[in-house]
Structure formats: structure tokens, C-alpha cells
Design goal:
Helix content is 7%, strand content 41%. With 335 residues, the chain is mainly β. The protein starts with a helix and ends in a 7-residue tail after the last strand. 42% of the residues are buried.
């Protein structure tokens, strides 16, 4: 615990910490040019811009309460105007569709419910793929949430967690955390050669968690118990890794979620440090944002992170029962 506290203090000291005097904390602190700015907190559909219907408003008026949806957000994915996230506390996938102004929840198939939904991704047709760690399977739904298929079993997975889809090549990557491998499939669930094996040598893995793909098809893996990030090219060949266990910025205590922005910068959440660290393509630390707490821009057990095409970073702040949204200020904002 002392090591974690030391790290948090060090991060605040070196980066200058966020500015909490205003409603919108920013990182780094002036006079440095801000790179990340807090945007908002999502705990219910309305926070994501989905307006309440007339009858919902009437019900809340008489019931005297708001319908707070999120309990324990875990994996998150953003595609266009849709925000997809799993809720480990409710064993549910939620979809906030800001274009059609509606929310949808999915709890699995009629014949087989989710037990531990972890992560979510979509393909080029809008089909939805959800991993379930306890059911040891990937569930597939169409863009309307109708069940299509399921692939994987106890023979294929020990514990499927993170998922990413190469839309151009029609490949599905699934983290098998206990097997310490990245399993690969076609969109129809046909298994292909896996990536990695258990170990700590180059290209090997030890309890990997979330994964991400960049625009070139390179795969980024949070190699959690090796306390590093592994990078593989589109042909699954290991390129390099960065990171190590430590109590100083640039090192990791419990790396979990990962995302890549349009410039190739790599964002990694750390559940023990309660922060997000940003690295360049070569693994050099650029910035740290977040700290432990309940205020805007603070975290308690951040899990996954997703970056939208318009430069918003969405972080599942799991134990604060919310999703936090940040602006990446280098993106050109659409008016």
C-alpha cells in the first residue's frame, strides 16, 4: 500500500496533477498546454445524451427516484454514436444509442444467460460480440440485439476476457487469460492459430487482459502479470514490448485496459494506481491522468478504456459505478 501511495504522490508531483478548481479538470496543469480534459460522468442513459421518454418522466415524478443503470461497468467499446459496455454486477450488456435516442440491455440468449460478460466489440456489419468468462464462450448478436450464434467452449477457452475485431480482415481476437494466449477466430467462429504462450520471454504472455487493434491491424495486449504491453503485427508476429513492475510513473502495478488513438499513442489503465498512462508508439511515457477518488477525473478501480473516432476516451470506473469521459484535445473537434 505504501508503494501505491508513493506512486500516486509521485504522479501528482511530476505531472503537476489535474486542475480541480474548474468544472473541467485538465492534464497537465498550466502553464503546460492541456492534452486531456475531463468531459463528463455517465451513470445512466441521459448522461450519454439519451433523452427520457414522456412516460419515464411521469414514472420518476411519482416514484420520486431516478433510474441509475450502471452497477459495475467493465469492458467498453464505442462505434459511431453507440456506446457498448458490459456490467459485471448485473451480468448485462448495455448499448446506449445516441443517434436513435434509446438504450438496450442484453442478458444473453433466451436459452443461456450471461454469467460473467467481460468485453464487447463490433464487426463491420454492426454485429455485436461479447465474451463471457464463466460460460467460456463468445456470444454474437446482430445490430438490433437479436441472438445470432455462439462459439467457443471449455475446449476452446479457459477464461475468455478481452476481445477485438479486425473489421478489414474479418478476424476476431479473444484473450484467454488463464491460458495466457490470444485466441484467433474467423467471424463465424472457426479457430485459427493462437498468439503467444505462457511465459515471460519475448512475445510470451502471463495472464493477459484487454486488447486493442490500431488502424494498421497491429495488436496491443495488456500482458498484466508480466507488467507490460506486448505488440504484434497484423500477421501475429511479435514486434516489441514495454513496461515493467514498479512504483514510478511509466511502470505498472496492475495494467488492465488498453486503447490506441489516431496518432498511435497507447493508453493503459492501471487498477492499482487508479490512473491512465499514455505512451508513444515506442513505449515512452507522455502523460498520466487520474488519481484515486470519487471526484471528476478520479478513479476507483478503472478497468477498460475505449477511444472514439471524435477523440473521446471512455473509461469504465468500475468501483465508482460509472463511466468517465475525457477529451483528447489533439483531435479536431466536430462542431
Amino acid at each position: 500500500m505504501k508503494r501505491v501511495l508513493f506512486l500516486i504522490i509521485t504522479i501528482s508531483f511530476i505531472t503537476g496533477g489535474p486542475v480541480f478548481a474548474s468544472e473541467k479538470p485538465v492534464w497537465p496543469q498550466p502553464p503546460e498546454k492541456p492534452r486531456i480534459a475531463f468531459d463528463k460522468i455517465i451513470t445512466k442513459p441521459e448522461d450519454a445524451g439519451i433523452k427520457k421518454g414522456f412516460f419515464t418522466k411521469i414514472w420518476e415524478f411519482f416514484a420520486g427516484e431516478e433510474n441509475k443503470i450502471i452497477v459495475k461497468p467493465f469492458g467498453i467499446h464505442v462505434d459511431g454514436k453507440k456506446i457498448y459496455f458490459t456490467d459485471a454486477g448485473l451480468a448485462t450488456l448495455f448499448i446506449f444509442d445516441r443517434e436513435k435516442n434509446r438504450m438496450k440491455s442484453i442478458q444473453g440468449f433466451k436459452s443461456e444467460k450471461f454469467r460473467a460478460p467481460i468485453d464487447v466489440a463490433t464487426d463491420s456489419k454492426g454485429n455485436i460480440f461479447v465474451t463471457d468468462a464463466e460460460n467460456r464462450a463468445v456470444y454474437v448478436f446482430n445490430d438490433k440485439g437479436i441472438a445470432l450464434s455462439k462459439f467457443g467452449s471449455a475446449n476452446d477457452f479457459l477464461r475468455p476476457t478481452g476481445i477485438a475485431i479486425d473489421k478489414d480482415r474479418g478476424l476476431v481476437y479473444v484473450t484467454d487469460t488463464v491460458a495466457s494466449q490470444i485466441k484467433r477466430f474467423t467471424l463465424t467462429g472457426i479457430p485459427l492459430d493462437p498468439i503467444g504462450k505462457k511465459g515471460n520471454k519475448k512475445g510470451e504472455l502471463n495472464r493477459p487482459t484487454f486488447i486493442a487493434l490500431d488502424s494498421d491491424g497491429k495488436l496491443y495486449v495488456c500482458d498484466s502479470m508480466n507488467f507490460r504491453v506486448n505488440i504484434y503485427d497484423k500477421d501475429s508476429t511479435f514486434i516489441r514490448s514495454f513496461g515493467k513492475l514498479g512504483n514510478a510513473i511509466g511502470s505498472f502495478a496492475s495494467p488492465r485496459g488498453i486503447a490506441v488513438d489516431k496518432d498511435g499513442n497507447i493508453y493503459v489503465t492501471d487498477t492499482l494506481f487508479n490512473a491512465v498512462q499514455i505512451f508513444d508508439k515506442n513505449g515512452n511515457l507522455l502523460l498520466v491522468f487520474g488519481s484515486e477518488g470519487k471526484e471528476p477525473g478520479q478513479f476507483f478501480g478503472p478497468q477498460d478504456i475505449a477511444i472514439s473516432s471524435d477523440g473521446k476516451a471512455y473509461v469504465t470506473d468500475s468501483y465508482n459505478m460509472r463511466i468517465e469521459v475525457f477529451d483528447i484535445l489533439s483531435y479536431e473537434k466536430k462542431r
